Amino acid sequence: GHEAVVKLLLATNKIDVDSKDISGGTPLLWAAKNGHKAVVKLLLATNEVDVNPKGGHLHQTPLSWAATNGHKAVVKLLLATNKVDVDSKDGRGQTPLSCAAENGHEAVVKLLLATN
């Protein structure tokens, strides 16, 4: 997750925490997708990061990507912000809940059901 590098970059106060790559992915989106809990925590702690950007080939939010890939700890962190759109639909019309269910991530499904 390159936590130390992210800390150094954030400390400069010269980076755009919501910068997007060619597919629309932001640092938060990629950290959530790949289950990098420590990096997600650092980015959320800035209180400047957009928690609902859509990016990647499926136009998913960080919550959708974390749910799709079964990253329960990341899903918990995102939900704790009380800012994520739990019903956001991706490019296929799927919600984070349906993505988690489709991929058999029971613990994430339970977590998302408890928030609705």
From TrEMBL:
Q: Which PROSITE patterns match?
A: ANK_REP_REGION, ANK_REPEAT
The record ties this protein, via SMART domains, to: ANK
Q: Which InterPro entries match?
A: Ankyrin_rpt (IPR002110), Ankyrin_rpt-contain_sf (IPR036770)
**UniProt entry tagged with the keyword Disulfide bond:** no
ANK repeat locations: 23-44, 92-116
Q: Does the keyword Repeat apply?
A: yes
Keywords, A to Z, come to: ANK repeat, Repeat
State any GO CC term: nucleus
Biological process annotations from GO:
regulation of gene expression
Q: Which PANTHER family does the UniProt entry name for this protein?
A: ANKYRIN REPEAT FAMILY A, CHROMOSOME UNDETERMINED SCAFFOLD_25, WHOLE GENOME SHOTGUN SEQUENCE
**What's this protein's name?**
Ankyrin
